[in-house]
């Protein structure tokens, strides 16, 4: 059965309204203030460290994002930790909030499809995160120019943009997860808790769980040295179920041009390579392409789950 | 001949083994106001959701202005406005902004929407508070804003689900006047309500729901007639006779209840005032008043559910 009209009619209207709501909401202001302050502190720390330890580096601006000065983590690590919180805070009540406000039936009685509601809410959240990330990145670059006295190179900008795109995909996974919970669970508070629990498991505990699972799935045979490699690879594979791991690997490759692999590297693989020589941007991108595809796939999978549940949902409020 | 605007045939909705709507037939003509009545859980809201295309029927078909809400949902939704019980709006937006958002979703141009919104807010007597956040509105004002949305969208059909529930008498009266204004504008209205006086005031016909079925569809007079209570109630005031004795000889009289001295309430299946007047005069009495009243919906409704449904 073919439906009349476009399923996306009204998507932009809903997305812009959602984005406007987020931009003016107190929770967004609070969480962005937290991100901004910690990011500035991290970059300020990185600037201090760069000026103390680095004489010359063609990728100085990328170092701004990866250098850490105790006790603060690097800007990239900070974003990897806090961005899921921002995404969850934005959309944990995207769908069930409409039911709670009793606006859902009125909204769906308008001449639009349900598709537009879900897509609009997702895109509205993504738009706000994209604007926030771009602003943050420009702010960091500005601070870098101000304190380091150098403009960013073209390679810095290209890698920086690729990093931003990957960060957006990472945020998209958490947005889709939070929307899925807000569709599955009718209480906004419970859906927020559920999303935060998943974040806690994947961001904090997964690094502890992965080695345990790997040791069970691929035990080391003391007589076979290759089993050590197998266990390490198994551990890596298990770790990659966490978006945090995938994002960490992408960040490591894109912001550190000298990095050549995200996995174990054997001597025969680096034969002829000049130690510390940067990899072309395209090559770095090719190395992390599976991780990037993994993030996008996870986002689509979670969004599809939310979509299927929402399409079949009984609308009574 | 007036056109049929809403037509449901054999409409059924099943949730697992529970039957919410058990195969109903409903036909509403253009410009008609039809009240959906029945106890909670009788299937009124589920029927409304199926008419709107928000819930898929298990069996049966629906046509709104000749269109299928499931196959042509956008065309149907363009023509149908929906006002649910305790309608929700976005509290952080003003009344005007809420309507502007709806207008954008409905694809109404910004210029046209501006005029329509102003006119609708004016008609709903919300013009003065239009720029205040909806969070500050009372429940009655929100319901009126809901009606303003229907006016703004210029729908042909309005489906109102318990619009007066939880409203104070003044707000109920104001909403009622707005619903009557919608009807005067030629809108076809389906009104679900537990407030029988509201239904009696505005509806042309009523549909009585019971256990997922429509047990009765017709006018209030037809309902009163069907349950044997008499569609016509005549208030008689006379001296010098006992109407309880002589009145039963008039054809069509169902019952006569004596009130205070010289007053009787006659229930009849037709207007028997000429016969009653003749009987009083022939018996040597003096007739002081002969007043025809409409059958009261609350009485007919209660008798219907007490006698017809429970006995069945």
Automatic annotation (TrEMBL), chain A:
GO molecular function: ABC-type transporter activity
Any one cellular-component term (Gene Ontology): plasma membrane
PANTHER family: ABC TRANSPORTER PERMEASE, ABC-2 TYPE TRANSPORT SYSTEM PERMEASE PROTEIN
Keyword Transmembrane in annotation: yes
Keywords: Membrane, Transmembrane, Transmembrane helix
UniProt-listed Pfam families: ABC2_membrane_2
Transmembrane segments: 30-51, 71-95, 116-140, 160-181, 193-218, 288-310
Domain of life: Bacteria
The protein, known as: ABC transporter permease
Phylogenetic classification of the source organism: Bacteria, Pseudomonadati, Pseudomonadota, Alphaproteobacteria, Hyphomicrobiales
TrEMBL record, chain B:
Keyword Transcription attached: no
Keyword hit for Isomerase: no
Keywords from the UniProt entry: ATP-binding, Nucleotide-binding, Transport
Chain ranges passing through the membrane: none
A molecular function (GO) term: ATP binding
Pfam families tied to this protein: ABC_tran (PF00005)
Domain ABC transporter span(s) in chain numbering: 6-236
CDD domains: ABC_DR_subfamily_A
Family in the record: Belongs to the ABC transporter superfamily.
Matching PANTHER family: ABC TRANSPORTER RELATED (PTHR43335:SF11), ABC TRANSPORTER, ATP-BINDING PROTEIN (PTHR43335)
The protein's name in its UniProt record: ABC transporter ATP-binding protein
Taxonomic source organism: Sinorhizobium glycinis
